[in-house]
Amino acid sequence: MTGETRIRARGLGFSYGGMPVLAQVDFAAGPSEVVALLGPNGAGKSTLFRCLLGLLSGYSGSVELGGADVRSLSRRELAAGIAYIPQSVAPAFNHTVTETVLMGLAGRLRAFGSPDAGHRDAARAVLEELGIAHLRDRGFARLSGGERQLVLLARALVQDAPVLVMDEPAANLDYGNRHRALTRVRALAEKGYTVILSTHDPEDAFLYATRAVVLAGGRIIADAPPAEALAPELLSGLYGIEVALGEIVYKGKKIPACVPGG
Q: Can you tell me whether residue 29 is helix, strand or coil?
């Protein structure tokens, strides 16, 4: 991890109805990191995200954002420090792309306030940065899954928070859109953002992440660069199948490959 810490969990524990979900989780992330959070279903990934985002408060230990305890921060202060990008889902209303992106300002505007020209300029700049400015007047419901995911990312970027938390950002995307979306995410980290994303695919960690954090049974069992953290034995134990790792050389670059065995 880099020297600066933007978000940290110390001794984090959480239980639902007396059933432990997280136990003594220590986790930290800093600028220019893409942290891939992996683990089987029920490992505690969603609960960890909710604690980091300030959506759950009844935990033991602490979560710090920019050095401040998350439980002491107002909604506006949380919005200034951390943004959440959910999985792309079908919208209830067909807002335009620009309107959808501007919703990212909800936590920063005063009560009953509306986006001004400066906010709209910022939204336009983010759409251009992500290569989707041509979609700005299109209805969100008319977009492809990959386009929707990039719009949700743009909504988070307009929020102008340094930490981005992404819940399986490539879920339900086809192969091309998956690569395009995660390549954009990696580029954002290279500009200084802290990105924490959950994934069920080890290859997402190998190809796009700088670190892999593995949760199992509510505990972190690995936290290192993907090539170190995601050993075949660990992946086999996590998912109950044999896993083989190798490398593909493409244009002189060695690219990790992960395939299931028998």
A: strand
pLDDT band for position 110 (50/70/90)?
low
Neighbours of 144 (CB within 10 A): 13
How far apart CA 161 and CA 167 sit, in angstroms, is 16
Residue 109 has a pLDDT of: 59
Interacting residues of 221 by C-beta distance below 8 A, sequence separation 6+: 214, 215, 234
Is the CB of residue 194 less than 8 Å from the CB of residue 162? yes
CATH number of the domain to which 151 belongs: 3.40.50.300
Taking only the tens place, the pLDDT of each residue in 119-139 is 888 899 999 988 899 999 999
What's the pLDDT at 192?
95
**80 and 204 together in one domain:** yes
CA angle 262, 218, 203 (to 5 degrees): 40
pTM: 0.88
The answer as to whether 2 is a domain residue is no
- State which residues form the domain around 240: 233-262
Q: How far apart are CA 102 and CA 23, in angstroms?
A: 37
Same domain, 93 and 172: yes
Does one domain contain both 55 and 127?
Answer: yes
